[in-house]
Amino acid sequence: MTIPAGSLLTAQDLRKAYGPTTALDGAEFSIHPGEVVAVMGPSGSGKSTLLHCLAGIVPPDSGSITYNGREVTAMSDAERSALRRSEFGFVFQFGQLVPELTCVENVALPLRLNGSSRKEAERTALAWMERLEVDELRKKRPGEVSGGQGQRVAVARALVTNPRVVFADEPTGALDSFNGERVMELLTDAARSANTAVVLVTHEARVAAYSDREIVVRDGRSRDMERVV
Amino acid sequence: MSASQWARDLGMGVRFAFAGGREGWIRALLTAVGVGLGVALLLLTTAIPNALAERNRREAARSDHTFTQQKIPRAEDTLVVLDTDTMFRDRDVRGRMLEPEGPRAPLPPGLSEFPAKGEMAVSPALKELLASDSGKLLRERLPYRITGTIGEQGLVGSQELAYFAGGKGLGDRLEYARGARIDSFGNPDLPPSDPWDPVLLLLVLVVFVVLLMPVAVFIAAAVRFGGERRDRRLAALRLVGSDSRMTRRIAAGEALAGSVLGLVLGTGFFLLGRQLAASFEVYRVSVFPSYLNPSPLLAALVAVSVPTAAVLVTLLALRGVVIEPLGVVRTAKPARRRLWWRLLLPLGGLAMLVPMVGQGDDGGTFNQYLLVGGVMLLLVGVTALLPWIVERVVARLGSGGIAWQLAVRRLQLSSGAAARMVNGIAVAVAGAIALQMLFAGVESNYTAASQYDVSRAQMQVHVPEHLELASTAEKFRDTRGVHKVTALAETYLADGHTDASSLVQVTLGDCAALREVATLPSCRDGDVFAVHGAKYDTDTAKLAKPGKKLWFDGADEDRPGEHFSWTVPQDIRRAESREDPTGTERGGILVTPGAPFTTLASFAEKELYLSLAPAEPNAYEYARNTAARMEPTADPMVWHAVERNDRFATIRTGLLVGAACVLALIGASLLVSQLEQLRERRKLLSSLVAFGTRRRTLSLSVLWQTAIPIGLGLLLAATVGMALGAVLLRMVNQSVRVDWPSVLSMTGIGAGVVLVVTLLSLPPLLRMMRPDGLRTE
Amino acid sequence: MSIGHTLLGLLESGPRHGYDLKRAFDEKFGHDRPLHYGQVYSTMSRLLKHGLVEVDGIEAGGGPERKRYAITEAGITDVERWLATPEKPEPYLQSTLYTKVVLALLTHRDAGDILDTQRSEHLRSMRILTDRKRKGDLADQLICDHALFHLEADLRWLELTAARLDKLREAVAR
């Protein structure tokens, strides 16, 4: 497969095994700027591993990942960390907010990691929290807010650096359908208006319905449904 | 509440302690190891008095000539003992030459038969040393065949170097050699040791308190390992219907299980350590395993108090926690820590100690209970004050880098846990600082700066009466590593034969040797000098007048031809005094060998002062070997710049060893709780790494998180330690002087432990920060 | 659901007589609604006319029920196309989907592909509904949600079936 024209992030023939377990067995992926792509598949199919590889968190055993013309697999750990800091955002299912920091400090964290001053970082963070309708939580700690609010704080944190790609791994997994959809709505709205691409790992159809297209991962192999149909 | 229900709940707790799968086991094992190490240390401490007593007993049982005053005639039951003690490198070798003079001669403890001439029985440690390459030089000194081993009863420690060699005709050598004719070993009439000086007693008591307090703190911390997970488990139990009192009992059961297992492990560690102790020699003191028997009463006390304390600590820790079916609720906002009762503890301690100020002078006594109580209260005060200080300071800490922010925020949320981790180290450091101050203060009382000028000579050899000075000196000159030999003979002359009122020292030596004791204008063999200007010497000027007749002091009236008198020659010259190698200004008369004075030489004390080549590390050994060839009982003296009271040195050594052990122990527990904390945050760490947090940032935040409470703890420890040290110094009537080097070194050691712990927890931290942590769903 | 395609699919494993076809159909798909003989004849004659089947042989004794049918190349292509085309997402289409999956298994085609294709089609509809919901008023939202929940139920069935394909393959082979 060649790199599709205009693609922001492309993966080819990814293979990854954890010990005797094969997580990825020749998976492919590509996403355009501003596109929302759902990664679906049964649990244990390797969709989270695919996300981790795409985001440069886990190096694949073989295969190539191209981001914006750069080969991610050839980068050093420090370079990949820097890439994640500046170009990517992350939302996980849970356990991602630092419990000791207040919500606004949590949102400001990525900016501060990029070297912004505390004041400036927290101002930007607050603007994003307003957008996600959680600005009244700024002084609270994650332990004091509800699950849906916490996820919205997490979404604000993922978007605060104006990333080119947001990786969301079951972002609504711990929420009820109402709160889950609200989070998805806010996430996709914000991402589209900022031309941020979203890689959305989910097993829920109604969450995947917020995407532009989906790929299906089964037994470590991916199917891009757009191409099949 | 029926007893059976209690038993059932406790039993359930015990089961939970071990049945929680792999994690449950690890937790129980950690607790047990922590408690076990503490118990082992406690048992060891309770065994030390016994060990010391046993050493004293054996030492007394084998004592021979040292305490024998009267001379006894040769008989059927007498034994001649020559003291041939020597040193090898920096280790003492106890040596005795034995010759039984009849069939009923007493056998020394540890021997079953007397070695024959040219044979010896050795201690196991000496046997090993002699067989090794490093013992080659000692082998030359002990030219006897090894035919036996000294039994444990004849030794005071497993690593003691000792031998008994057989000899013939030793009785004749008693004239000039160290030794005695004895008819029994041991001296039951003498008290086993001198009564303890109150200051020394104070030191010993404080050392014990200072070492045991951190152990107690450590045990308290160990039973709280894994507390958060336990709380979650208890919440699950509430969900299936147990009430809050039941959960408390179950928690108590868990703590009980851990601490009882800890008791078992501790006993094991202790027995293991006891065996190991035999193969170690700490600062020249070694023991036999059989010495280390804790008294049954103290052991029973440990066995009861440790589990009780564990249960109490658990219940106390649960006090601030409400375990609800759906989770653990910390009582809303934990009550703000109040200062007054925390201050009460150290102040109370001070109040107990202050009345004793000044009582340690000359034979005074201390109230031991007040002393121990006061020191304990002061040290417990550290553990009470520290959480308050950490809470206050951390709440005020401002902005900083991201690592700093993460650390400070975490501390703000759980300052109590952080303070608990450091408590042990703070207590240990505070106690050690106080002790070091006390030691430094009283050191002058117990340590005499020797006057020896070690830059001029490093060894002094006494030449026995029957040997000739010049030829002996020659032998040492030919010895490898000996740089210079100053040979001097000394005697005294009096101004009268029987009614002397003044004495003058006479030193005999060649020109080069005499120049070591005085400044000579010029010197030729045959010259005689009178030394002027020596301190405290008024008689020389009076007696060293040309033509004056002087008598040899101490001449034996019974021996014919020895009413020796000497007339000061007309050509006596003047010399100026200078410090001799022994550090004294010597006056008197100096005589060169060529002067008409020869008979005097045989009456003189003959000394060799050896200057050794620093480049030859074995110079001391070569010199000792030469001395042993000359006369086995000669024990050349090595000069040191400082001489210490031996018992003082032992206490100080004990403190150092103990403090090192305690800090290592606490370091281990710090590491364990650090790792547990990290494991609980594994997922969070992984997600932080995912969005690009540098590992350096996270490592740094972990470091800050430990360093801030440790820094505060050490600061408090230094303050309390110095206060305690000052009070203790005042108690023994010493002026208060802060011994900064020891304050800095003790805090440094404390900080070092933290650094080591942080370094050791970095690899697991880095491993946990791998993205694998995200793969848990 | 298309009886013609189903019968065509059944023929793919080999030529059969009309009554064999009826029996096979009833056994696999007609649990509550067996086919009438007449339906089989009329369907087969339509398929013959379009060249999707051919008569393979006639047994002695004559009569339409004695004809043996075989699938043609054009017939195979037609089955293939039918299986690959996702159904229009609408409620209660699981019987058609079930038929398709079983036929795919019977004819050793990739049943997973059929499910994936169908899911993709469902998702396409759900995207449109989600989009309408986001832009519309409360009434729109409620209507769309109703449809979305139904579609989601179908999708769950698709997932479940996908997870049980191996078992189904065994059951069908029996």
From TrEMBL, chain A:
InterPro entries: AAA+_ATPase, ABC_transporter-like_ATP-bd, ABC_transpr_LolD-like, MacB-like_ATP-bd, P-loop_NTPase. PANTHER family: ABC TRANSPORTER RELATED, IMPORT ATP-BINDING PROTEIN. PROSITE patterns: ABC_TRANSPORTER_2. One of its GO terms (molecular function) is ATP binding. Keywords: ATP-binding, Nucleotide-binding, Transport. It comes from the Bacteria. Coiled coil: none annotated. It comes from Streptomyces swartbergensis. This is Macrolide ABC transporter ATP-binding protein. Gene3D superfamilies: P-loop containing nucleotide triphosphate hydrolases. One of its GO terms (cellular component) is plasma membrane. Residues 9-229 form the ABC transporter domain.
TrEMBL record, chain B:
It is a multi-pass membrane protein. One of its GO terms (cellular component) is plasma membrane. Pfam families: FtsX. Its main location: membrane. Keywords: Cell membrane, Membrane, Transmembrane, Transmembrane helix. The keyword Thylakoid does not apply. It is found in: Cell membrane. The chain crosses the membrane at residues 25-48, 199-223, 255-277, 297-318, 339-357, 369-390, 654-673, 702-728, 740-762. Residues 206-315, 658-768 form the ABC3 transporter permease C-terminal domain. It comes from the Bacteria. This is ABC3 transporter permease C-terminal domain-containing protein. The lineage of its organism: Bacteria, Bacillati, Actinomycetota, Actinomycetes, Kitasatosporales.
UniProtKB/TrEMBL annotation, chain C:
Residues 7-77 form the Transcription regulator PadR N-terminal domain. Pfam families: PadR. InterPro entries: Tscrpt_reg_PadR_N, WH-like_DNA-bd_sf, WH_DNA-bd_sf. It comes from the Bacteria. This is PadR family transcriptional regulator.
